[in-house]
Every structure is written in C-alpha cells, then in structure tokens.
Design a protein that fits this description.
By secondary structure, the protein is of the alpha+beta class. It folds into four domains: 171 residues, Immunoglobulin-like (Sandwich), CATH 2.60.40.3650; 89 residues, Zincin-like; 209 residues, Orthogonal Bundle (Neutral Protease, domain 2); 95 residues, Roll (Pdz3 Domain). It has 17 helices and 31 strands. An eight-stranded mixed beta sheet has the order 5-4-8-2-1-12-15-14. Helix 5 packs antiparallel against helix 6.
C-alpha cells in the first residue's frame, strides 16, 4: 500500500510540475517579401536539466510524406535567464539548448516559407499562410503541454483566421491544449475576405485569399447543405466552430483536413462555371467529411503521432479513398448534383482504376502502406506499378456500399458502418485496426467479407462492377474505348523537343523498348517538325499515336520511330496494337425490382 501511495504521489508531483511549464510563441514578419517568419519561443517552469531539446516535425498529419521542415529553419539562437545559451544541432530536426538548469529560456529562429500548397507554409508581401507543423517547434517529450501563439501581422494586414481558440482580451493570441492541436491548426494572416454561416448548429467561417468570382451568398447556402448531409451520417457535429481557409490562385487545387478547419486550394475564376463550382463543392465535401473520417474515425496508426518518423498504416483506402467516395454521395444528397451526374462521376473513378496498369500490380492495402515512398513521389513508372489509395479506395467504398445495401435488402449501407465505427472509436478512445473495420462491416451487413477483402483490399482482382451495379438496378457494361484504332502506349511532352514522358505496361512502346526521355525525331521518315504542324499546343494528353503518320495507320501495322537517346540516334520499330483501355457504359433500369430500388435509394440516400 505504501508503495502504491508513493507511486501515486510521484505521478501527482510529476503532473503538477508539467502543468507549471509555460510555452508561448510569437510570430512576426520583418521580411515577408523575402518569405520569412520570425519565431520567438519562450519556455518557463521547465525541469532543472543541463539542456532542452527542441524539435521540428518532419511531416504534417494528413500528408503522408516526410518533408523535412527543419530544412527551412535558420538563425537559431537561444538565451537562458537572459544570457546567451550554447546551441547544438544534434539531429536533422533537433536543436539542443544548453540552459545550465535555468528554469526559463527564450529561443529565436527564422523560417523560410515559399512553397505554395495546402500543406506547406507560404509567405509573401500579400499574406502569410502558416502550416503549423512547419513553423512551430516542441520540447522533446512534451507534446501534451499547452501553448499560446501570438501573431503580429505585418504592415496593414488586419486579419487572422485559424481554428485555434482565441485568448480572451489578447488580440491575435490563441491557445492550444497540446502540440497535436497546434500542429493541426493552420493560420492565415493578411487581409483575407472573411464571411460566415451557420450549419449543423456550428458557426463556420470562410477566409478567402486571392480574390475570385465567387458568390458568397450562394456558397453559404450550398456549403451549408453539404455540411448538414455529412453531419446527418454521423448524428452529431463535434465542433464548436469550424474554419475554411481558401487560397484562390490562377490555377489552384487540393485540400488538407484538420480537426476543426481545412485548407483548400481553388482557381479564382472557376466559381462562375458549372464544372468549377461543382469542383469546389466536391473539395469542400471531401475535406469536411474528414472531420469524422481520419480526424476522429481513424486507423490506429494515425494518432498519437510520431513527428520524427513515418506513421505506417494499411488503411488509407478507408481514410482517404472512402472520403473521395463520399464526395459524390454528399453532393447528390445536398441537391448539388443529380442521379445522372452522380453515376457519371462514379463511372469516371471506376474507369481510372480499371485503366491504370498498376491496379493489377499493387493492392489497396499495399498502396496505403507505401504512401510514404510512392504516393507523393510518383515517377514515370508509377502508373504501371502502383495504384492510388484514393482512387482504389473510392471503388472499394462503392462495391462495399452496394454489397451491404443488397445483403440487407436496402435496410443498411456503408453509412451505418461509418457511424458505428465512429461511435466505437469514441468509446475506445483510439483508432481502429483493419480487422476491426472488417468485423463491423460484417456485423452491419450480416454476411462474410473475407473473400471481398482478399480480392479488392489485399488483392488485385479485376473489379466486377457489373455485378454490384446490378444490385441497384443499374445496367453496366465495358467496351473497348477506341476499337480498331492504332495504339503505341507512349505519352509525349513538348518542350524544346517532342519527348516520351510515359510508357504503358505491355504496350507496343513497352515491348519494343521505347524509353521515357527519348526524343522523337521522325516517324517513318517524316520529321517531327512536319508531324507537329497539325497538333494544337499545349496538349497535355498528347500521345504518339495522335501524330498524323500513326493516326492514319491500322492495327497490326509497323512504324519506324527515329529517336535520340543520350545524344545518339537510333531506330525502333513498333507493331501497333488496339488499346486495352475500356469505356464503361451504365444506365438506370426502368424495370428495376422493388429490392433494387430499395438498394439504390439506400445507396444514394435520395429517392
């Protein structure tokens, strides 16, 4: 008993000591035009040790790539009790401050921020976007310690937008209960256009940077509809407030989810077109669905985070792929799209998977695990050897959803699995394993998914979409996309030369040894200059068979390609084939059975 009391007392004293630690950041911008943030970090109440290690994360959650944020840090200095302190860099992302047992230290460093993306910091004279994992350091072993962040806007900047909680009475000062929250809370500083609306009982703020032809009132209505539909699936919205940070560029895209905020990339003048507006709402739907799926309903490996190393999981096909799938479901339920568009969008994703050679090579679980080395670092052969966990996961979600709806005669769907897994995660206070997710699917559906897992998640079987669409009264079939048309399998890019940029597995170009980076000089004696006279540029989808000399030939013909490789000319003969790529046709059955209609309605969520 004495030993137990002693341990309890020690734990109490340790917790009390940790609670006395205070960490405060101040971020200013002396040279925003040169893309720098000035960071001051103050620590007090720290344990009496000879040194303190300060660490910068090497990656940011939601983007599965080690980005080495420490490479952007410079001019690191420190003082202890007001006197200069010795500093030593001990690892790629760790700075050791020798504080001679001082209880308080101050650290100053600069961060260079000039990479436009939703996951990296960017600063110029018009605004500052602080992707927190690449800006703030944490004391080793103290991730659970609270901190405050004070922003000092530059010049005439007058707004700060973030999901962090404001500190009462202190302008532009915010509070994070721990570093996981801080690193999950991006900050926008500048003169962004800010508007808000209520949805699902939660105040939502939208911070628009970069201008654009968006209609605020229309966005308020349609974004709210999407949010309401997402919330309806899970039965609750876990936030007190939510922030959309939107970066509008000439050509923008992408998004990154956070606990109560998101960062979206958009094209500033695309809101006025049907395609552009729908694309933006799809992005909103995707990132907002992450509020549950990933941020709270998550694979077990994705939290607590290790910010020094990769965090491996085989379940990004659920975390990201299912979120891509739900984009379409949320839009049709919100009335943004109709049943025809919904089906066409699904078919588009299905065609991407089936026509990617790598889908026959890499499984969804393997793709998830290899995200760290392939997903964000594709090369010229990636389409031949791998498949995106986004696109394959989207199709797995489709098949699983229809299987569940059919097995329960329209009583249940994937929605029920997602909600049940969300509730289970709240109770267990942890993420799920692959086996637990499978068990829940089987519990909700009442049937075994062992063969399904083997075929579509851990295997690379061809997608039997005809069978699953039939459950919902949809006639679907595949056909050759370009029957009797010559095909080489070589993609081209046009810069100073016409150069091979990709070679499809088992294509004529693959079999006969045409290589990426080969410069095309002539086709059957016709110079590439002559070949390109009728080609409209830019043409990002240009293929070798689109050039005039090949386009007029027949399947089975042989063409002679003159190339330059490593400065030497050579000739390669290609025997033209028919393209293996397929086109999917699908339509709703007018004579669908009552069960098929029930499955369809449960699947879509609309009548």
């Amino acid at each position: 008993m004495k030993k137990i009391l002693g341990v309890a007392l020690l734990l109490t004293l340790t917790m009390a000591a940790k609670s006395q630690v205070k960490i405060g950041f101040e971020v200013s911008f002396k040279e925003p035009q040169a893309h720098y943030a000035e960071v001051e970090m103050n620590l007090s109440g720290i344990a009496a040790k000879d040194y303190v290690d300060l660490k910068m994360p090497v990656w940011t959650p939601g983007s599965y790539l080690v980005r080495e944020f420490g490479k952007n840090v410079e001019s690191f200095s420190a003082s202890a009790n007001g006197k200069p302190a010795k500093v030593q860099k001990v690892t790629k992302n760790t700075w050791r401050v020798y504080n001679a047992k001082a209880a308080a230290i101050k650290v100053n460093y600069r961060v260079y921020a000039f990479e436009i993306s939703v996951r990296t910091a960017f600063i110029d004279d018009s605004h500052a976007f602080l992707s927190s994992a690449g800006i703030f350091m944490y004391p080793a072993g103290m991730l659970k310690t609270p901190s405050t962040v004070k922003i000092i806007p530059f010049g005439k900047w007058d707004k700060v937008s973030t999901g962090l909680e404001p500190v009462a009475g202190q302008k532009f000062t915010y509070y994070a209960t721990d570093f996981d929250i801080l690193f999950d809370s991006p900050i926008e500083v500048g003169n962004q256009d800010v508007f808000d609306f209520m949805a699902a009982g939660v105040k939502h703020e939208v911070a628009m940077y970069g201008g654009g032809n968006y209609d605020k009132e229309r966005l308020k209505v349609d974004m709210a509809k999407v949010i309401e539909q997402a919330t309806a699936i899970f039965g609750e919205n876990p936030n007190k407030h939510y922030t959309f940070i939107v970066h509008n560029y000439e050509q923008g895209g992408g998004g990154l989810e956070h606990l109560n905020s998101t960062v979206l990339g958009a094209s500033r003048n695309a809101y006025g077109t049907e395609r552009g507006y729908k694309g933006f709402l799809s992005l909103v739907a995707h990132e907002y669905f992450h509020l549950w799926n990933v941020k709270r309903l998550r694979p077990i490996a994705l939290g607590p985070f290790d910010y020094d190393n990769e965090n491996y999981t085989t379940n990004l096909w659920t975390a990201e792929g299912f979120t891509s799938y739900y984009e379409n479901k949320l839009l049709i339920r919100a009335g943004v799209t109709n049943q025809s568009t919904f089906l066409n969008d699904i078919i588009g994703g299905l065609g991407t998977v089936i026509n990617t050679p790598g889908s026959k090579v890499q499984s969804a679980s393997s793709s998830s695990f290899d995200a760290w080395i392939i997903g964000y670092r594709p090369n010229e052969n990636s389409k031949n050897s791998s498949i995106s966990y986004y696109s394959k996961g989207e199709i797995i979600g489709l098949l699983m959803d229809l299987e569940i709806a059919n097995a329960t005669k329209g009583a249940k769907s994937l929605d029920d699995v997602m909600k049940a897994m969300y509730e289970q995660g709240k109770q267990q206070k942890r993420g799920y394993t692959d086996a637990e997710f499978k068990a829940m699917v089987e519990k909700i559906s009442g049937v075994s998914f062992t063969k399904f897992w083997a075929k579509y998640i851990d295997g690379t079987d061809d997608v039997d979409f005809e069978k699953y669409f039939a459950y919902a009264g949809i006639n679907a079939a595949r056909e050759i996309a370009s029957p009797n048309k010559p095909y080489t399998g070589a993609a081209l890019k046009v810069e100073r030369m016409v150069t091979v940029s990709g070679v499809a597995r088992n294509s004529p170009a693959w079999v006969q040894g045409l290589n990426v980076n080969d410069d095309i000089l002539a086709i059957d004696g016709s110079t590439i200059v002559d070949e390109m006279r009728s080609v409209r540029l830019p043409s990002p989808g240009l293929t070798l068979e689109a050039l005039p000399s090949i386009a007029k030939k027949q399947v089975g013909d042989v063409v002679e390609i003159t190339i330059r490789r490593d400065g030497l000319e050579r000739k390669i003969s290609l025997t033209l084939k028919e393209s293996p790529n397929i086109r999917i046709k699908a339509s709703y059955q007018e004579d669908a059975t009552p069960q098929q209609i029930a499955v369809r309605q449960r699947w879509m969520g609309v009548k």
